[in-house]
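Page 37, continued from 36.
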């Protein structure tokens, strides 16, 4: 066989592997964002069903071993009634309104008190709310204004502090939903509503059920590809849980957040299973990330291998987008490798730019960073898919696939050279 034929065959083999990688990536994203898993939340056991699927996927791609790491969490959920009317007009859950994650359920008809943010006076507001026409009202105000005055508005969440029935936070469409602080339930209901849906409204009717899950059992999925050396390892992480349900019919598919990152670590596991690495490789799919990083926090307190043996950790979150630049956060110990990331990217042109942000508790790299593990957080944000973050529109139809190959190659190039 001559040299030209060998080169052609090698090229075709590489193309075939790349095609299989993107095919598997898309398959996993599509599966995890399907109705079968109901947004990979907790109320309908969607997260655990997704975890069982991932365990089988890791086994299928040929990893050395797969284990689950159980833990428990407390979480507030909304899987019952989810209805709202403003002056008799019915709103659409997930489009016009959603719930604050630590809100109790709420049933009834309420007057609406609109906060005057231009001439705000807290004492005047409290005096107004004591008037007969505003007793048992829902107080409507723009969210960021309430955040800036949270010492005042936090009083409106507590029983006995004021006569209001609850709060309405306005947020520009598309309306969002969160889970991060859902480990508790406050005294009074809090709703997210678009400004146009509540503007000028005098009366609101709400029928919303919540269910608080105590000691809910979930688990991390941990796969291993055995390398040639066992004294050190690389770790690839992504969270597979998401927001779950908003009422009986609405679920948050989470194709970009974070079926995309989860699918990426599955394909990386496949790659290293086929190409034995110099060091052990661990692939950790975390649950509980959207419930304030509970899965990764549990892991760093109960590590499978000592944290000091981790050469580098890659946390991949929301890469289902098309921004030519890649956002990064790097731990203090990880900075010694960041120059190599920049060098590889400059040489290989994987991304137009690596935009490094301040380290924050916004994904599963953070607990490792606080335990002095060299790590980097990779996220492709501010592209066409990012606008659907934490909304019902983050689906397989809106997720983008342009950044996947660049992330895969940047990470694998780094491992090869570090």
């Amino acid at each position: 066989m001559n040299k030209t034929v060998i080169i052609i065959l090698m090229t075709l083999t590489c193309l075939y592997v790349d095609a299989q990688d993107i095919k598997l990536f898309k398959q996993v994203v599509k599966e995890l964002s399907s109705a079968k898993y109901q947004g990979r939340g907790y109320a309908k056991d969607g997260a655990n069903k997704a975890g069982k699927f991932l365990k089988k996927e890791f086994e299928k791609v040929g990893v050395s071993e797969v284990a689950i790491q159980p833990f428990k969490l407390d979480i507030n959920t909304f899987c019952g009634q989810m209805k709202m009317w403003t002056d008799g007009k019915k709103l659409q859950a997930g489009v016009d309104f959603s719930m604050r994650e630590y809100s109790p359920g709420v049933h009834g008809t309420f007057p609406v008190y609109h906060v005057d943010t231009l001439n705000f006076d807290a004492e005047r507001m409290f005096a107004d709310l004591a008037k007969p026409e505003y007793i048992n009202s829902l107080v409507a105000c723009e969210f960021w204004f309430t955040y800036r005055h949270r010492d005042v508005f936090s009083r409106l969440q507590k029983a006995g502090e004021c006569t209001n029935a609850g709060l309405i936070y306005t947020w520009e469409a598309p309306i969002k939903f969160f889970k991060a602080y859902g480990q508790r339930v406050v005294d009074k209901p809090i709703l997210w509503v678009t400004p146009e849906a509540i503007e000028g409204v005098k009366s609101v009717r709400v029928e919303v059920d919540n269910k608080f899950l105590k000691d809910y059992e979930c688990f991390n999925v941990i796969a291993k590809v055995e390398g040639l050396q066992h004294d050190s390892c690389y770790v690839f992480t992504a969270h597979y849980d998401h927001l779950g349900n908003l009422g009986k019919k609405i679920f948050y598919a989470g194709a970009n957040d974070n079926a995309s990152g989860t699918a990426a670590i599955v394909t990386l596991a496949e790659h290293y299973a086929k190409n034995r690495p110099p060091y052990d490789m661990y692939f950790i799919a975390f649950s509980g990330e959207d419930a304030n990083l509970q899965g990764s926090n549990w892991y760093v307190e109960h590590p499978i291998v000592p944290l000091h043996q981790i050469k580098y950790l890659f946390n991949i979150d929301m890469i289902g987008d098309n921004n030519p630049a890649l956002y990064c956060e790097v731990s203090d110990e990880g900075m010694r490798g960041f120059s190599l990331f920049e060098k590889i990217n400059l040489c290989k042109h994987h991304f137009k730019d690596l935009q490094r942000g301040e380290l924050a508790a916004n994904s599963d790299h953070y607990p490792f960073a606080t335990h002095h593990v060299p790590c980097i957080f990779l996220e492709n944000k501010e592209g066409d898919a990012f606008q659907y973050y934490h909304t019902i529109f983050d689906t397989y139809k809106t997720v983008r696939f342009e950044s996947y190959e660049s992330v895969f190659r940047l990470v694998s190039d780094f491992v090869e050279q570090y």
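The first strand starts at residue 65 and ends at 77. Flag for discussion at group meeting. Residues 1-20 have pLDDT under 50 and may be disordered.
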